[in-house]
Queue: 4 jobs
Job 1
Amino acid sequence: MILTGELIINLIITLFRIAGGLFLAIVIGISLGFAMATKPLVRNFFDPIVTLTYPLPKPALVPLTMVWLGVTNKAAVFVIFLGAILPVIINTFHGVKSVDDRLIWAAKSLGTPEKNIFWKVVLPASTPYIANGIRIALPVAFIVSISVEFVASRAGMGNLISYYSDFGFYDYMFAVILVFVLVAFVIDRVTVAIMERYLRWYDGK
Amino acid sequence: MGRSKISVRGLSKVFNPLKGNPVVALENVNFDVEEGEFIAIVGPSGCGKSTLLYMIAGFIQPTKGEIIVDGRRINSPGPDRGIVFQEYALFPWLTVEGNIKYGLEEKGLDQDEIDEKVSKYIRLMGLEGFEHKYPKELSGGMKQRVAIARTLAYEPEILLMDEPFGALDAQTRELLQEELLRIWEETRKTVLFVTHSVDEAVYLSQRVIIMTCRPGRVKNTVNVRLDKTLSREDVITSREFVETRHKVWVDVREEVMKHYCIVEG
């Protein structure tokens, strides 16, 4: 399995899907979280959608995405995106909501015009919350990726796990799971280290 | 008589909470502040002192009445009015230096000028060696020094201070009071200082405005005639200080008791 490169190729495929889904979730999730926190109209529209879909297990949507997008990378990325975007939206939303009015006032009295308050105060003040959302989204993306690949994929780590399991190669199956767990662990640690480096000013618990 | 620096005319503020009855925070407040004057505003908690200061700062709008600064009616924050909050309101993601620089960069000063002013105010507030620390690494007293330096560096003509030493321990508080007096003697900025400490108000200011309990109105104004060049010890043991303090205390006490009556039923 290692010699033929089967493991590496499938690992790379899964990681690319995770990266794609996470990237979209972060970019769109942050934008939507900000919009919901600052524009009541956006909030009223998306709030019920977010609240209702949060407890929904995203792999339940796999059959539907297969109908829409087929057994493709796009389908896998889409479901990972759906799973990962919710914690990003929710944490960004709360981050923006919890910005202290007095920070905004202080900035205004130090000459920051209203139109720059977002970039100068609201965004930096909410980065710890956004980082937390991304941290929560990360394992969600890993979990969802494997579940999607069980069903709607002809490649990837999830596909490999179900393949070995179907044919009774349980030693191989556990090897794949172990490798995936290790990779996920390392990625999580690296993410946390980067966040701690850039958020060393943050006084949160 | 010259034109007033700040003129508060018939100022009222009513808050309309989503639930419950409207709260009249301030009702028909009138007073004038001369250029270079140090005014203290005292009153029981919840009397709208901070609301009054925030309206002068331009953060919130009055329901009725107007505030005139240098002959112009104000309705938004401006570079002429600097604010210092009780809980510092430092930008936590910026270092001490970054915080002091903030307003200077917003002003669009060139780098040399910024560096010069930053080091001047770091020295003035005794912050040498802390330039690259983040606010979370500082004690309350040091944070407030940074906040004062940040506001002073922007060089506003008016300094609005909302219980700036209220969260500090007694020793730090006294130290910063003396430093504020020294800075005021040097710069002669117009200062509006909100506090609930009668001692602090009388020690620092030239005039104490006493507010009534809700709705907040001006109850009385007491002039303070103390020789600010004397040491703290000599000031607080002087007859003038003791008498003025008593005069203010009696008024404040009366309002605090009224406040208790409302709260207790």
Job 2
Amino acid sequence: MALEIVVMVKQVPDSQEVVIDPVTMNLNRSLTRNVTNKADENALEAALQLRDEVGGHVTVVSMGPPQAESTMIECLARGADRAILVSDRFFGGADTYPTGLTVASAISKLEKVDVIFAGEESSDSSTGHVGPGVAEFLGMEQATYVSSVKYADGFIIAERELEDGTEVIKMPTPVLLTILLNANVPRRQTLKRKIAATKQGYEVWNLEKLGMPPEWVGVRGSPTIVRKMRPIKEKERAAKRFEIDQIPDLVRELFEIGALKLEEMQ
Amino acid sequence: MTGLKNAKAVENTDDYRNVFVFLEVREGKFLRSALEMIGVGRDIARKVNEKLVCLILGNNISKLADEAVEYGADLVLGAESPDLEEFRTLPYTSIVSDWVLKEKPNIFLIPASRNGRDLASRIAVKCQAGVTADCTELDIEHDTRILSANRPTYGESMLAEILCRKHRPQMATARPGIFKVPEKSRSENPEIRISKVKVDKSLKTKEIIEFRKKEKVDLSAAKIIVSGGLGLGKAEGFKALEKLAKTIGGEVGASRPAADLGWISRDHQVGQTGQTVRPRLYIAAGISGKIQHIMGMKNSENILAINIDPNAEIVTYSDYVIVGDVKDVIPRLQKEIDSYRKEHSGKKESKIASAS
């Protein structure tokens, strides 16, 4: 059975990225500040491996501003079959709730979905909430923090990494899986495939296409707001300096302040 | 299934009262985070004279309910079933959401553990509410009963204060290891409501075939941690740290790069992607002090850095600094601690001898 697979990706701020100018088809070597979220690259790779093994299609869905184009092209160049950028000025300023709603709404427009992949979390906001949110909107089973995925007889078998061990779980499709950062090694995009991907292009879906009221999405649809930001104040510490020959003094001080205790020694 | 619904502001926030906390249970016991949730939830509830409501799901939970009451639960809502013995997203979401919709809490706190995050976002969507992830500071505004949910952002350099003004409950996940385990403090009129539930077949789609338990060093409870980083030079460098840790009654920790290189197993890793610790003494040996590591240990009571570079980032976070090569410093530290002990425990023994 061929699988229809969706991968949720996000473009996040980072250091550098090589972009192909869609008009000139030349490498644009100027530095841009945006890259694909690393864990999403692992999610895409897991999706591509599953497709290559079982057959089917991989569709990438991202919500973001127009400059997320580079991420869309990159995903195609890595091997995705189709890429949809859900983009509209109304989507700006969304917290996790309307982000999940918007992405879920786009996915619900696809003809069929068997497996949805997402990264465990984005590097810029680190909530890990959008994936499970999408699963809830779509009424799907989910497995988060997954390190490996297999498919057999209509079931997904996944390994899920918890703080105290590994769960091996079995679930029927449809299911949403969030993939751990560094769970695999993403395949490379060659220049040739990048050019082909740029030619192939991606779709842009706006709010009208999703058919949702504008007050449901973006900043207006967000239950939470950021009231203020402040620098994290660290406890002032003395950084009292000792040379190697002064270690006896330090050891005495550590015992005197109770940082080291004779009765705890073994 | 929620369907494609928007987040819904409630008509009257005064209808929403009390503080819910989700207590995570593993193998029939509370995780440490459960007690942390009780601690922070209790502080918030008592500030505004509301009830602390503890949610417990599992198989045999009556003892756990009693324990929650000892720590200050005013009300325990419990659900019991063999199907709830392990955490599974769908039944847990269903039961907890039903409680939320029926009891209308003002605030709902869940640990930002892996299962906690798995659950929190689904409940928020099901209840059409807002959730702030991974908070490190939580407080309540007395008059408005609005939750001040604070979370680190921008590479942990800034703290964002996030509010949820019109949606209820105000949900937050709280980073494990940050909030203190409280002293026991029994509430005056505690109530326990545990019901046996039958989990619907449609919610039992996830089968847990196997659980491979990791032999984990629980650094979050350690009083002393001796951590090593790239400055050790090679895997063997950890041997000296292990010896030192053993002598002083501590555990061994590591920076991420050291774990990445396989010098020590991942379960010793301290930091943003490892464990968050707050021991009485943290020794950072050959750790430069990248922010990801600092995040996991900066709340330690005393910090000793051992580094060849007197300007390493770790230094500004340290109470004590030994400047030198870890390879030279650790054996010397070991020697001086051994001789301090010999000298002082010798005195103690002689005192006892003379007293008898």
Job 3
Amino acid sequence: MTTPKATTHVTQNEALIFERSQTGRCGYRLPALDVDETPIDELIPSNLRRDDDLAGVPEVSEPDVVRHFTRISTWNYNIDLGMYPLGSCTMKYNSRLNERVARIAGFANLHPLASERDAQGALEVIYELQQHLAEITGLPGISLQPAAGAHGEMTGVMIIRAYLDARDGEASSKRRVMLIPDSAHGTNPASAHLSGFTVKTVRSTPEGQTDLDALRDLCSAGDVAGLMLTNPNTVGLFEKNIREICRIVHDAGGLVYMDGANMNALVGWARPGDMGVDVIHLNLHKTFSTPHGGGGPGSGPCCCTKELEPFLPVPRVVRGGDGFKVDYDQPESIGRVKAFYGNFGMHLRALAYILTHGRDGLREATEAAVLNARVIAEGLTSDYERPFSDPPMHEVVFTDKRQGRKGVNTLDIAKRLIDYGFHPMTIYFPLIVQGAMLIEPTESVGRQEIQQFVEAMRAIAREAQEDPELVRTAPHTTKIGRLDEAAAARKPILRWKPEEKSATA
Amino acid sequence: MLRSVGLESPEELFSTIPADILLTDRLNVPDALSEMELLARFESLAAQNAAALRPSFLGAGAYTHYSPTIIDSLIQRSEFFTAYTPYQPEVSQGTLQAIFEFQTLVCQLTGMEVANASMYDGSTALAEAVLMAERVTRRNKVIVSPALHPEYLHVAETYVAHAGIELQQGGFDERTGLSTFDDAAVDDKTAALVVQSPNFFGCVEDLAVLAERAHRAGALLVVCVTEAISLGLLKSPGACGADIVVAEGQSFGVPVSFGGPYVGLFATRERYARQIPGRLVGVAYDREGRRGFVLTLATREQHIRREKATSNICTNEGLIALAATIYLETMGRRGLQEVAAQCAQKAAYAARKIGELEGFSLPYSAPRFNEFVVRAPAAAEGLLERIADEHNITGGLALSRYSPARANDFLVCVTETNRRSEIDALVAALKSI
């Protein structure tokens, strides 16, 4: 008889649930059927029913499921564990109170097709959040229907298209160019394309600002429908010529769309509506603290000027009679972008965030977010190349230029940061900054942790000089090392199959 | 801390914003509420949502099903709900493995070969399927069943408005309640037939026949499922020959929550994998040969391909996909079958009882899953209002909401959560009016 050997505990090697499945295991119990049973053949003929007995769907117990997800969860970094400095992602603290609010039975169990009179509380939530977001952005027209940032972008660009079509009639067909800075997020051109626009790129100046001369040139052709601009931009700088930028685009007959991904730098301090912006989307899962959930759900409300308001998606939630009502009578609307009213659960959380912060708290949060970024900018300038010298807003970009001389690049630095207990920053974005490291601390980190982060980054800079191989092979402390992503894309395995059991176990 | 960066006042932090656009007044937002005040405020708002607090027979794209307790408990783990999109695989294996399991489960249920990491919801998944059908076939006519959820159709119309795609309406058999597609209409310009099953009126479509009809013309069959629990009982769209299957996954343990957040399922054939919108997770190995998971085939996506991407989608519905994954694994193979069977049985019971009432009829003859249309002797909207007021039951959805011509019709949905006593109370209420 062989002696059993101790091996790495299963928590570090939790299999796929399909590999744990045991015939006959069960994790649920339903009440017995309480109506007379009709032979199933009389209800649905056999040719319309499944004949595969759901083969492959797992059979596991409740403790199996709880252990499974608890174990794999420990392989995730998360905000509650520490600073999550992803630039342009605004990974701020997600209050448990907001989670509790979203789970109140009167909201969670409310069906979206309940009649107006039976859903007044929910409609009031939507209406009140609309009012606050309109005040925060300075843009009075608003729809909470879009489900995420890119969805809000698509909605905003469609509104521009509908407005121009209504304003210019046939002549609108000559205006099909959407201008997008070279620093923009990839969702911007993809959203513009969905509305039938051709994308032209506006270059940035060496100082990291939109190039006004280039913009004037592009606008002179007379075919410009609009400009999509992120402000503060994706290198973390406020577009100081924003008024002039809007004027140039407006004079050329176009509209200005602002990507609100970076609103956490502005709330309570400046409003896009006052800058000349026509339409913006907000990311409630960034600025307004609704949880990212490992990739959603998000919520991407679209706010616009009075002039653009008739083109917002239907239905609109408005005040009416002595309550709130759902208004479908919007003949110029672009239509619906999602079933029902958008991600209502996120609306609840965002409203709770606004109400618990209040007018002063919102302003102070912005202040702390910018100050934290400023501390990082100061703290890392001695060790990392900072391509732009203007003071940053809520996020700051560095590059790997100095470390590159030792063969250490941005990816290596990001992976080594994991060994120091931090989630990496956003890397290789924006594309205009070679080897970009975009760092956004948010207001949710204290002074001590900011200092620890700065020290970790400095330690990595020293390692890059003294022991570059250590950095190049990081991370060293995780469950798995760097994965061969190229091989994964060449021969994609996108689902588990029974026959792969032995090959992949 | 301000001093440490050489500043004296918070205002100096915003010195790069031109003075004429800096806010001088405070925002017109209320002062901060404490935790107790906030809860009281929301509790009082929630109490005004009368529909949430009474027995309900509403379905039509959002379904009340039992959600095992462990789902909400697990998705509230910090490691899941406060994590970002898994761009850094070494510190995101939990999320990535869960998505890989989600993709596998979606393939198993739909009978398809590839599924993505999720879409916003069923309606936007359908719109993306229409766009994908055009990309795959290079044809621009899409014929949509009139028995598709009206809000889904409306969303698809918005998405394709500038995509050069023509949406045409198919036919509808008023006797059976099933879609029909005119032979002359399905031609060599047709990219896809789009059909929902069970359809908006609760009738189960014969997908195999429709797939054959589409394929004969070289078109795709796009199948949309709004009640995903039906997949526990009905033949999978994949087994019937569908080319793209989209579904609303809310039925998998996700609260109805006034319409969202939900989760869109999107599945297709392996040969179209590179045309699929959204995120995909695949298997990868590290240098030691250890198995892990990564986001893959990113060259389809907007952050690489920009305006040439298969979609603009970025953030999707990660946490809701996780909830659906936990639901499917907890209920498992037998649980899904049992829930589906209970839904069908209880709906059949309710339909029989309502159909026996004088003046009420069930207009469609096709097999149904857990929803059915009732034709009332009077306008359905007023009838349902009275039942709500006098009997404290939400009896269903008046179809006049979407179609004024259907003034007397309403849609009833029954799930495993509706006890027999509730069904009997609904029948008694209808009888008394």
Job 4
Amino acid sequence: MEKPDLDKIIVYAEHKKGHLDPSCAELVGKAKELSVKYDDNVVIGAVVLGYEISEVVKDLSQTGVDYIWYTDHPKLTRYNSEYYALALEEAVRFIAPELILIAATSQGSELAPTVGARLKTGVAAHCVDIVADDNGQIVNIVPALGGKFLTEIKIPDVRPMISTVKPSVFVKKDVPANSNVQTVRIESKALDSYESRIWFVAESVKEENEKPIEEANVILCAGMGIVDEENWRKLNELAARLKCAVGYTRPVIDLGVVNNDHNMIGTSGKTIRPQLYVGFGVSGASHHICGMKDSQIILCINSDENADIFRLSDYKVIADCGAILDAMLELTGGLNG
Amino acid sequence: MLNIAVCIKAVPDEECYNIIKFDPVMKTLIREGISMVINPSDLHALELALCLKEKLGGEITLISMGPMTVTTQLRECLSYGADEAYLMSDCIFGGSDTLATSYVLSKGLRHIGNFDLVLAGNESADGATSHVPSQLGEWLGYPHVMEVCALNIVDEKIAAVRKKADNYFVDYTVKLPAVFAVSRGMNKVRYPSIRGILSSKGKEIKVLTAESIPDLDISMIGLQGSPTKTGQLITSSFHRDCMLLDGSNEEIASAILGMIRPVIDD
């Protein structure tokens, strides 16, 4: 296929505590897939920012990218939206790519629109797919109205185009490492002279054994039909016994039984694709479906036989989810453990 | 005394999502019969503004961009206790993407006055890009923080905020003026008082058109100012062939456990 204007695709490589974020491989996989459409005639690069990041750069060289551009600077020791946006903007101006892929993590969700505004370019948010059309133009498929519809976003006239993708939306592909990766260090003049107006104070400690919900094989998901705190407690007890992850829909947060929205599944929360999704009292609102539709097996329990979620389920149980929870607890060590 | 601006967006009522139909010929949504509401996240931003005003005193100014019908949602916001409302409404604003929208809002805010805090909901229920707060901050030249779930004013120049970041929280202090995107988990939205409802009836909603703002760069707004072009709407229909699991609760529980156990994580 012709490639009217696509020479370089870059992935923003996020990392935490010396480890590359899993989203990086997902995005490199997509970049590679697009490159194949353009007869493999596209440079795939990664940009990584941080301080003393030689190990991360080394790991990045195994992901299949052709180029790595990195900025290593003390002001990038930990994520600061102002320093990171400045360094990313500087890198992008230097590299001049046509397309930038950024994971819609907490960090990427700030950086993408910020850098987009600085470069006066377009950002397609939360893409569920990125494809090339017959004319070789990049088309972003994004959810609209909470996933009820999908729509296409193109950025025809301004470069670079920026696309953000939630973690787990793309499947990680095994891209063979390029044995001849070019590594380029960007010396940031802008960072030397800029003083941020945002100061880090403290960070809550994450429980070490807490695995991100995106990586769980089985997810028990609470919907509004869970009704009360008692059932919510039972669901968590069951999940603890079976070592499953627990997710929930927006209405469960509004019920007040969850005290944060870290594991909310849907358009404004997490996207998951576990081997097995078990929904307890999930009704099937479009914004939730958007976040779980790619689960391998979907099993749902709902007392309403007309619940929308059943149209997307492989297995349905028409029953009170409290009663099923009780029965499952009985079979896994008794109601009271 | 704090000068607080709150950005408001009118969005289709989520309750109506299931009756929203798509016109396959015109490739547009049939909006007929769809009621518009205040974007849910924006109410949490307004609630924060009201709490800060109660504690520290100040003025709350609402700003929205949209058709003239948005006066309904702005009036409703006034009934919660906001002081003033501005609607940026002009047909040449139509078709603005997030970059153009944030540009228009930034020009409106600059025109209205000086603000210590600019608050917005973290995401809109319809587009849900979560771009406008950051981009508004960029146009205004203010620092900006997304997903703020707690905020205190340290002194007139500094706010202390807690940001939700993936699976943990980070605390920052931020120099004011600044833009903060408020997460829905931050607070519980109050109900408007009867007095608030009554007094909102008499309040004027000031309309700003493109002409109201002398230094507005027309090339930055509307369709021509929007780098992103939205194409066709596709109805996303997902369907799987569904099998009924039947039997006693115990039989069903046993069947579900039989599916879970082989695939649970190590």
